[in-house]
C-alpha cells in the first residue's frame, strides 16, 4: 500500500481531524490572513530548492499530521542561512521525529522565510458549549501559558470587539511600546482578528484554530504558525 492510502486509512480509523501547518496556512491565507509564505518539501533536495527560491535565511518544520507540537519534538529549525544548514536541519528533524514519533506519517518539511522578530501574540478559536465559536487574544509565551492573560469575544466579532479585546489584556502596554520599542500596529491585529472571525463564522466545520505565534510589527502583523482542527463529522 502506498503512503497516501495508508494515511487515508489511518485518518478514517482515528477520525483524525488536525490539519498540518501547511494545510492550515493555505486555508487562512485564502481567508485573507497575513501568513508567512510556506511550502511543503517532500525531500531534502526539495527543501534546499525551495529555500533557494524563497531566499535565506529560512525555517524548516516537520510536516506531519501526527506531530502537533513541532518544536517540542525537535521539529523546528530556524534561521538557516545556506544550503548546507538546510540539509543538516532536515536530517536532524527527521532523526528526532523518528525517535520521538516512530509511527508518525511524515509529509515532509515546511519551508518558510525567517520572519523578522516582532512582539509575539496569539489568536485562537475554540467552541463554547453555550456560546459557540469564541475568539481568544493574548500575548505569546509566558503571558498566555503562565499568567493566563487573555481576552475572549463571541464570533462574529464587530470591529469594536476586536479593538476592545486587544486593549482588555493586562499586557496591552507591551503593544504600546516600551523601553524604546516602537508601538505595535494594533490596527493590523484588529484586522487579523476580524478576518479570523469571518473565516470561522463561515466555516462551522472548524472546531479549533490557533495562530501561535503572530508577530506584531510597528507596521503590519504576520502569522508564522497555524493549526486548524476540524469537527469529527467534517472528515469523510
Ligand atoms: P510549534 O508551535 O508547533 O512548536 P512553531 O511553528 O510555532 O511550532 O515554531 C516554534 C517557534 O519558532 C515559534 O514560536 C517562533 O518563535 C519560531 N518561528 C516559527 N516560524 C518562524 C518564522 N517563519 N520566522 C521566524 N521565527 C519562526
Ligand atoms: Mg506554534
Q: How many discrete domains?
A: 2
Order of helices and strands: HHEHEEHEEEHEHHHEEE
Name of the CATH class of the largest domain:
Alpha Beta
Remind me, CATH topology of the largest domain? D-amino Acid Aminotransferase, Chain A, domain 1
Number of helical stretches of at least 4 residues: 8
Query: What does the radius of gyration come to?
Result: 18 Å
Small ligands present: adenosine-5'-diphosphate, magnesium ion
Structural class: alpha+beta
Largest sheet: number of strands, sense, barrel closure: 6 strands, antiparallel
CATH architecture of the largest domain, please?
2-Layer Sandwich
Shape assignment: globular
Descriptors:
236 residues; alpha+beta; Dna Ligase, domain 1; D-amino Acid Aminotransferase, Chain A, domain 1; 6-stranded antiparallel beta sheet; 4-stranded antiparallel beta sheet; 8 helices; 26% strand; binds adenosine-5'-diphosphate; binds magnesium ion
Amino acid at each position: 500500500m502506498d503512503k497516501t492510502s495508508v494515511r487515508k486509512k489511518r485518518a478514517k480509523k482515528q477520525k483524525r481531524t488536525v490539519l498540518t501547518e501547511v494545510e492550515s496556512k493555505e486555508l487562512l491565507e485564502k481567508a485573507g490572513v497575513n501568513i508567512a509564505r510556506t511550502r511543503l518539501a517532500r525531500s531534502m533536495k526539495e527543501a534546499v530548492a525551495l529555500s533557494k527560491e524563497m531566499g535565506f535565511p529560512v525555517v524548516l518544520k516537520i510536516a506531519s499530521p501526527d506531530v502537533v507540537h513541532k518544536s517540542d519534538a525537535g521539529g523546528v529549525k530556524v534561521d538557516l542561512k545556506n544550503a548546507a544548514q538546510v540539509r543538516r536541519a532536515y536530517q536532524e528533524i527527521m532523526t528526532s521525529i523518528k525517535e520521538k514519533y516512530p509511527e508518525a506519517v511524515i509529509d515532509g518539511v515546511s519551508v518558510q522565510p525567517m520572519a523578522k522578530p516582532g512582539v509575539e501574540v496569539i489568536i485562537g478559536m475554540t467552541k463554547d458549549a453555550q456560546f459557540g465559536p469564541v475568539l481568544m487574544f493574548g500575548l505569546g509565551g509566558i503571558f498566555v501559558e503562565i499568567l493566563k492573560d487573555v481576552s475572549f469575544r463571541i464570533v462574529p466579532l464587530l470591529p469594536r470587539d476586536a479593538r476592545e479585546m486587544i486593549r482588555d489584556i493586562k499586557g496591552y502596554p507591551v503593544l504600546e511600546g516600551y523601553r524604546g520599542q516602537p508601538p505595535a500596529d494594533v490596527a493590523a491585529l484588529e484586522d487579523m482578528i476580524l478576518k479570523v472571525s469571518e473565516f470561522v463564522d463561515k466555516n462551522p466545520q472548524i472546531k479549533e484554530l490557533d495562530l501561535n505565534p503572530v508577530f506584531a510589527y510597528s507596521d503590519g502583523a504576520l502569522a508564522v504558525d497555524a493549526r486548524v482542527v476540524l469537527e469529527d463529522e467534517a472528515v469523510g
